[in-house]
Amino acid sequence: MDPGRVYQVWNPGRLIFGPGALGEISKEFTTRDKPLIVTDEGVVRAGILDKVTDLFARAEVRYDIFNRVVADTPIETVEEAASFYRERGCASIIGLGGGSSIDTAKAVAVRVSGDGTLREYGSGRPIPDCLPPIYAVPTTAGTGSEVSAVAVVSDHEGKMKVGIKSPLLVPKVALLDPLLLSTIPFRTAAETGADALSHAIEAYLSINSNVITDGMALSAMRMITSNLEKFAANPEETEAAGRMLLGSCLAGLSFANAGLGLVHGLAHSVGAYYHVSHGLSCALYLCAVMEFNVPACPEKFVSMAEALGVDVRGLSSEKASSQAVDAVRGLFSRLAIPKTFSEMGIEFRLDPKMVDDTYTAPVAKGNPRQAQPEQIAALFLSVQGTVSG
Ligand SMILES: [Fe+2]
User: Fold this and answer.
1) Is the pLDDT of residue 1 over 60?
2) Is the predicted pLDDT of residue 158 greater than 90, yes or no?
């Protein structure tokens, strides 16, 4: 951090944290309110939506439900949810689920408040300052969207992600309840955890980091690396689930202020082209990008290595850096996260547009080392795996 630089730190909305925190949700609404609950079928099947609607029924809070969110929500789904919101006369929005549900809730809030398209708002058109209140209830420990000023949706036609950024998108209240994570599948826990770890590492290395975001990012790294395996193997264990939820939230607070880097630039492009889950897309590139970034900030890698569980005593910054990368590689390997496209049965072909999109991606602007197009191409191809023919 440059002590001579002026920087700002945005505070989030209100956080309500702890086992049973969901019980507080009905206190946020009166009988005159009518929130739209934006969620997905997995949350419905896990019985989590019923918990919310039971609480609302007891408190006589009216609500409507949109449960058709899918991973990497297409713009068209947001439009459908926004029409439903208007038809039903809703007055606030609850994102209940993983990052896709919370981001969809934010994007719906934007669409019901202004007449611009999501592509326009993603290209810098100002967000209307009359958004309905947004509430976030995460059911995964990864996204950080519950405290961030960003919503990412998919433009399938343009084969790209649309990122909308505004402090107005920070949810008014985020309810973080580890009991809601108790049925998360192993793979989802592992991949969303990899996303959270990527947020912490990218925010920490970002050129826009500061002493406050650094503290949050290092705490997040410690919590995630020491709890992710326990959590993925046994999500019913409340302590590990709670620490993961807190770790991903801290990582979210950190990147909401410091920004992200090249991992997310590459991951968004791969997500748009190959529909690989966001967490897995980040996991694929995290180690390669860490190695790429070492020359830009070797001293930061020493403190990062320590937070990732490396005993750095007596290590040179070069050794500590390589052991930091090894620590992440080892964690992902123990979680059986695929390392290449061929391991996933995907034949990866690099479209030059993927390189262009990543080179110009606003999300990658915080990366501590500027990557040239040929270096971006090499990073994409580094996880191609075995190529047939
Ligand atoms: Fe992410």
Assistant:
1) no
2) no
Ligand 1 midpoint to CA 315 (Å): 31
Q: Does domain 14-181 have CATH number 3.40.50.1970?
A: yes
Query: Strand ranges (DSSP E) for the chain?
Result: 14-17, 35-38, 64-66, 92-97, 134-138, 150-155, 160-165, 173-176
- Domain 186-381 has what CATH class? mainly alpha
Could you tell me the distance, in angstroms and rounded to a whole number, from the CA of residue 198 to the centre of ligand 1?
A: 7
Distance 140 CA to ligand 1 centre (A): 12
Q: What is the mean pLDDT of residues 343-369?
A: 93
For the chain, give every residue range classified as CATH 1.20.1090.10. Answer: 186-381
What confidence category does residue 234 fall into, taking pLDDT thresholds of 50, 70 and 90?
very high
Read off the pLDDT of each residue in 233-251 and give the average, rounded to a whole number. Answer: 97
Rounded CA gap, 28 and 35, in Å?
Answer: 10
For 28-61, letters b (16+ CB in 10 Å) and e give bbeeeebbbbbbbebbeebebbebbeebbeeeeb
What pLDDT score does 230 carry? 98
- Rounded CA-CA distance 344/274 in Å is 11
Q: Where in the chain is the domain with CATH 3.40.50.1970?
A: 14-181
pLDDT at 379: 97
The per-residue pLDDT of the chain, averaged, comes to 94
Bridge partners (DSSP) of residue 173 are 14, 135
Whole-number Å distance, alpha carbon 193 to ligand 1 midpoint, is 10
Residue 197 CA, ligand 1 centroid: distance in Å:
9
Distance of alpha carbon 250 from alpha carbon 227, whole angstroms: 14
In angstroms, rounded to a whole number, what is the distance separating the alpha carbons of residues 92 and 109? 8
pLDDT score recorded for residue 288: 97
Determine the pLDDT at residue 388.
66
State the distance from the centre of ligand 1 to the C-alpha of 199, rounded, in angstroms.
Answer: 6
